[in-house]
Amino acid sequence: MSRFLRSPLGRLSAWLTAPDPTSRLQARLGQAWLTWLRFSRNPLAMLGLGIILALVLMALFAPLLAPHDPLEQDLAQRLLPPFSPGHWLGTDEFGRDILSRIIHGARITLTIVALVAVTAPVFGLLIGTVSGYFGGWVDTVLMRLTDIFLAFPRLILALALVAALGPGIENAILAIALTAWPPYARVARAETLTVRSADYIAAIRLAGASHGRIILGHVTPMCLPSVIIRVTLDMAGVILTAAGLGFLGLGAQPPLPEWGLMISSGRKFLFDQWWVATMPGLAIFIVSLGFNLLGDGLRDVLDPRSASR
Amino acid sequence: MSSNTTTTTLPPDDISHRLWRLARDALRLLVMLATTFLGLLAITFFIGRVVPIDPVLAIVGERATQEQYEAARHALGLDRPLIVQFLIYVKDAATGNFGTSLLTAKPVLDDIGRVFPATLELATIATVLGVLLGVPAGVIAATRPGTLVDQIIRIVGLMGYSMPVFWLGLMGLLIFYGELGWVGGPGRLDTFQEMMFESEVPRHTGMILIDSALAGAWDIFRNALSHIVLPAGVLAYYSMAYISRMTRSFMMNELSQEYVTTARVKGLPEWRVVWVHALGNTLVPLVTVIALSYANLLEGSVLTETVFAWPGLGLYITNALMSADMAAVMGGTIIVGAAFILLNMASDILYRLIDPRARAAA
Predict the structure, then answer these.
(1) Is B145 helix (H, G, I), strand (E, B) or coil?
(2) In whole angstroms, what is the distance from residue B211 CA to residue B203 CA?
(3) Which of A74, A99, B63, B250 has its CB 3.0 to 4.6 Å from that of B282, i.e. a possible disulfide?
(4) Which of B48, B295, B303 sits opposite A247 (nearest CB)?
(5) Can you tell me the distance from the alpha carbon of B340 to that of B122, in angstroms, rounded to the nearest whole number?
(6) Percentage of the residues of chain B whose pLDDT score is greater than 90
(7) What is the DSSP string of chain A?
(8) pLDDT of residue A198
(9) In the beta sheet, which residues pair with residue A97?
(10) Alpha-carbon distance B318 to B306, whole Å?
C-alpha cells in the first residue's frame, strides 16, 4: 500500500483526491476525477462508453480494419451467407462485403451525430438562455416559437424538409439539426430561470458586465450539464432518424454504406437472404444502445436531482 | 394545503366566478391553439413555397417559353407578395383545401380521409397494448427498485429506445411471418378477404376490425386481426418502453409519500397500497404520457406502415414523397401536425380537469 502511495500513479491519485486543493486547476481536476469514479462504478454506463469508443475507433481506422473495399463489387460472390470464408457477415446483392460496409458506415453515422451535436445544442442554448435571462416579451416570443417546433413530430418535419430540399446526406443532417434544437432551448431556459436571480449574477451585473458576457460566461456554463445529458440521450434518436431517412431513400444515397440505406436495400431479400437487412440493423441498435446507456449513466452522475431517485 | 383552504373559503354558490374563470381559461386555450396552428402553417408554407429552388420550373419544365412560365406563375399565385400568398394558404388550409394530389388526381383531403382510419386503427391498438404492458411493468419495477426485475424492465425499455422501428418490423416479418407463419403478412387483409371486405361489408368507420365485427363477418375479422397484430405489436413495444419508464418514475415518487406509510401502518394489504392508493394518484400524469405516446405513434407509423405496406397516412406520405407530390406531402404533414397539437392540448385539458391541484394553481 505504502509503495503504491509513493509511485507516480499513487501520488497523482492523492493529488486529485486531496481535501485541500491548492490551485484552481487541482480543484477542477479533482472534481472531474470524483465524477469519473462515480460514473465508472456503473457497469451499464461503462458498457455504453465502451461502445461509443469502439465506434469512434472503428470510424477512425476504417480502412485498416475493413477486410475489403466497401464499394468493390464482385457479382460472382453475391449474397454469400455469414461465416463464408473472407466474408464474416456475408455479402450483399452486389457481392460487397457487409462487414466492411458496416465499418465504413460508422464514419457516416459518426459524422451525422457530430454535426448535429455541435449545431442543435448551441442554437438551443442560445435561444433558451436569452429567453430565460431577459424574460418578458422576448421570452414569450421565443418560447412560443419553440413550442411550435416542439408541436411538430420530428420525423415528419425532417421528411417534409428533405422532400423540399432534395434527398441527400447534407440535407438530411440539416433537417435533423433544424428539428433537434427545441428541447435544448427548453432545458436551457429552465436552468437559466433558476440562476438568473442568484446573488452571483447580481454581483457581476453590479460590476458592470454586459448582458452578452453574463449570458455567455456566467449563465451558459450552469446549463451545460443538463444540456450534455440531453445531447447524449438524444444522439440515439438522431441515429434512428438518420437511419429512417436513409431507409426511405431521403438520406445518404447509394452506393454510400449508410446503415439505414443498407437495410432498405436488404429488404428485397429479407426472406431468402436475411443477413443483408439484419446486420446493419444490429449495428444501429448497438450504437444507439451505447448512447442511451451512456446518457443514463451521465444523468445519474451529473444531475443531482435524479441521483436521489 | 393552501389550495385546499382557498377552495373551502369560496362560497359554494359562487357559480358566476367559476364560469368566468372557465371562460377565461377557454379563451386563453383557444388563442394558444390558434397561434400554434398558425405557426404550423407558417413552417409548412415556408418549406413548401420558399425552400424549393423554383416551384414554377418544377411544374412547367425546363423547356417552357417565357409566356407559359408567367402563366403558370400567375396560376400558382406566386407573382403576389409573400404575405398575401401566406394568407391565401391559411384560408385554404382552414377550409380543408390542400390542393390536388398529383399521384391520385383527387383532392388531398379526400385521400387523407380515406387512409386515416387505417392509421387510427393501428395506433389505437398499439396504444392499448402499450398501456396494458407498460403500466404494470412500471409499477412492478417501482416496487422493487434495484432488483433484477427492475433491471430487466429497464433494459427491455432501453432496447426499445435504441431499435430502428423499421428494422424491428422487418425482423418481425422475417421471424413470425416468413419462418413461423404465425401472423398475416404485409397489408391489412389477404387478397381474398380483401375482395370479400370490399364487396360484402358495409363501411361505417373504415376500420376493418370494427366494420367486420359489426357485419358479423368473423372470417374477415380473424384475418384482419392476424395482419394487425405484428405492426401493432412493433409500435406497442415503443409505447410500452416509454410508458413503463414514466410509470416507474411517477410510482417511485408516490411510494415515498407519507400517505403510503399511513396506509401500510393501517394494515392495508400491500397490493392495495400499491395498485389502488399509489397508482390511483399517478393516473393524472399518466394520462398526459399516454396521450403523448399516442401522438408519437402517429409519427412512428410513417416507417412502420412503409415496412408493412399498411395503407394508412404514413404510407400515403412516403408514397407522395417518392413521386415528388408536394401537395400530398404537405397536406399529410399538416394533418399529422394538427393531430399532434390537438392530442397535446387534450392531454393538457384532461390534466386540469382530473387534478384539483392543477385546477387550483391555474
Answers:
(1) coil
(2) 6
(3) B250
(4) B303
(5) 16
(6) 24
(7) -HHHHHSHHHHHHHHHT-SS-SSHHHHHHHHHHHHHHHHHT-HHHHHHHHHHHHHHHHHHTHHHH-SS-TT---GGGTTPPTTBTTBTT-B-TT--BHHHHHHHHHHHHHHHHHHHHHHHHHHHHHHHHHHHHH-HHHHHHHHHHHHHHHHS-HHHHHHHHHHHH-SSHHHHHHHHHHHHHHHHHHHHHHHHHHHHT-HHHHHHHHTT--HHHHIIIIIHHHHHHHHHHHHHHHHHHHHHHHHHHHHTTSSS-TTS--HHHHHHHHGGGTTTSTHHHHHHHHHHHHHHHHHHHHHHHHHHHH-HHHHT-
(8) 86
(9) A91
(10) 7
Cβ burial B148-167 (10 Å sphere, 16+ → b, else e): eebeebbeebbbbbbbbbbb
Handedness of CA A64, A70, A73, A75 (dihedral sign): positive
Per the structure block, which three cell numbers stand in for A222?
Answer: 450552469
Amino acid, single-letter form, for residue A38: R
Which DSSP state fits B202? P
Three-state SS at B100: strand
CA-based nearest residue to B231, from B317, B304, B163, B314: B304
Indicate if the pLDDT at residue B6 is higher than 50: no
> Quick one: cell of B135?
403500466
| HSE-up (13 A, CA, CB side) for residue B87 | 4
Contact with chain B for residue A236, Cβ under 8 A: yes
For chain A, the straight-line distance linking the first and the last C-alpha, in angstroms and rounded, comes to: 36
> Alpha-carbon distance B140 to B248, whole Å?
8
Residue B149's pLDDT is what?
A: 92
- Rounded Cα distance between B126 and B329, Å, is 25
B173, B307 in Cβ contact below 8 A? yes
Kindly state the cell numbers that stand for A308: 436521489
Question: What are the Cα distances from residue B147, in Å, to A58, A85, A164, A306, B236?
Answer: 35, 44, 50, 18, 25
**So what's the pLDDT on residue B3?**
43
Residue with cell 443538463: A226
pLDDT confidence bin for A308, thresholds 50/70/90: very low
Whole-complex ipTM: 0.85
Tell whether A161 lies on the interface with B, counting CB pairs under 8 A: yes
Q: How far apart are CA B233 and CA B226, in angstroms?
A: 11
CB B151 within 8 A of CB B228: no
Distance, CA of B98 to chain centre = 21
Mutate to test the interface with A, among B28, B156, B161 (most CBs of A within 10 A): B161
Q: What is the pTM of this model?
A: 0.85
Give every CB contact of residue B156 below 8 A, 6+ residues apart in sequence: B137, B241
CB B294 within 8 A of CB B127: yes
C-alpha span between B334 and B328 (Å, rounded): 10
Mutate to test the interface with A, among B40, B170, B345, B347 (most CBs of A within 10 A): B170
For the segment A140-164, what is each residue's pLDDT rounded down to a tens digit?
889 888 888 887 778 888 888 888 8
Distances (CA, A) of B133 to B232, B239, B298: 13, 9, 19
Window 314-333 of B, Cβ < 8 Å to A: 317-318, 321-322, 324, 326, 329-330, 332-333
Which residues are CB-neighbours of A293 under 8 A, at least 6 positions away? A44, A45, A47, A48, A51, B158
In Å, how far are A304, B270, B324 from B78, measured between CA atoms? 55, 68, 19
pLDDT in tens, A29-71: 888 888 888 888 888 889 999 999 999 999 999 888 888 888 8
B159 in A contact zone (CB under 8 Å) = yes
CA B202 to CA A75: how far, in whole Å? 52
